[in-house]
Write a structure and sequence with these properties.
alpha/beta, binds alpha-D-glucopyranose, binds magnesium ion, 9 helices
Length: 251
């Protein structure tokens, strides 16, 4: 479409976005390794997974080591492959006013909220399973109760199954914005497939790619909010990312 342009940061969700089509992932990885050297492109993963769950995926899918890993739906940032400690600067920023145990207690009043395994419960993320049928009533009620108790929190529903409660100022998009400011980045693209990726498309990154297998909640967001900077691919997963990168003239 447009003529070839350089890319300062490539941000991508993992499950069902970067990962899911091994052949396309190999192609994309080799292109990313090239632009990392030739253009200094930063590679950032933004996943809902905890660090531990990311680790097993990184090994099984042979993922490139990113310049930054945004884990646990944006609430933790790990820099330069250092997976020991999350970036405290970011934790300080999102932690203010976060009342985890109060939120957990409130959630027990909602029978339809089934806690996810303890490994996915993180310092700044409380996660549940919630059916699509129950979500229609539960999410607005939960939002209302949190508001009544003056608990500033963000509720994110993804893939018609996962409900995350996070501190108000934290999600994948906010974490990317924080990195952009720290690194002074300008030209970037973000890729995703589900509800927890919506924030990636709502911040200042110039371009967004929605893979062809995007979940209904993201497609709905696209229908209501998309601009010419957002591209809904036909192809799925990494093949869809490649399609989008070509559409915007990066590849
Ligand atoms: C990942 C996380 C899970 C979260 C979901 C949606 O699957 O493991 O805890 O609820 O992403 O954000
Ligand atoms: Mg995903």
């Amino acid at each position: 479409m447009t003529k070839s342009q350089t890319l300062s940061v490539f941000v991508t969700d993992l499950d069902n976005t970067l990962v899911g089509d091994p052949g396309a992932l190999r192609e994309l990885n080799s292109w990313l390794e090239d632009v990392r050297v030739s253009q200094g492109t930063k590679i950032v993963y933004a996943t809902g997974r905890s660090l531990a769950a990311y680790g097993s995926l990184a090994i099984s899918e042979n993922l490139l080591t990113p310049d930054a890993l945004i884990a646990s739906v944006g609430t933790e940032i790990y820099l330069d492959g250092d997976t020991n400690t999350p970036w405290s600067l970011w934790e300080d920023q999102i932690g203010e006013g976060w009342q985890r145990s109060k939120i957990q207690k409130i959630a027990t009043q909602f029978a339809d909220l089934q806690p996810q395994p303890s490994a996915e419960q993180r310092p700044y993320k409380v996660s549940y399973y919630l059916t699509e049928a129950a979500a229609i009533e539960t999410i607005p009620r939960l939002r209302q109760v949190l508001r009544q108790q003056s608990l500033a929190a963000e509720i994110i529903y993804s893939g018609h199954r996962d409900l995350d409660i996070l501190p108000k100022a934290s999600n994948k998009g906010a974490a990317v914005q924080f990195l952009q400011q720290q690194w002074s980045l300008t030209n970037g693209v973000a890729c995703g497939d589900s509800g927890n990726d919506i924030s990636l498309f709502s911040y200042d990154l110039p371009y967004g790619i929605l893979v062809g297998n995007a979940q209904p909640e993201l497609l709905l967001w696209y229908e209501l909010n998309a601009t010419e900077r957002h591209y809904l691919a036909h192809a799925h997963c990494a093949r869809g990312i490649i399609e989008g990168l070509q559409h915007f003239g990066f590849m």
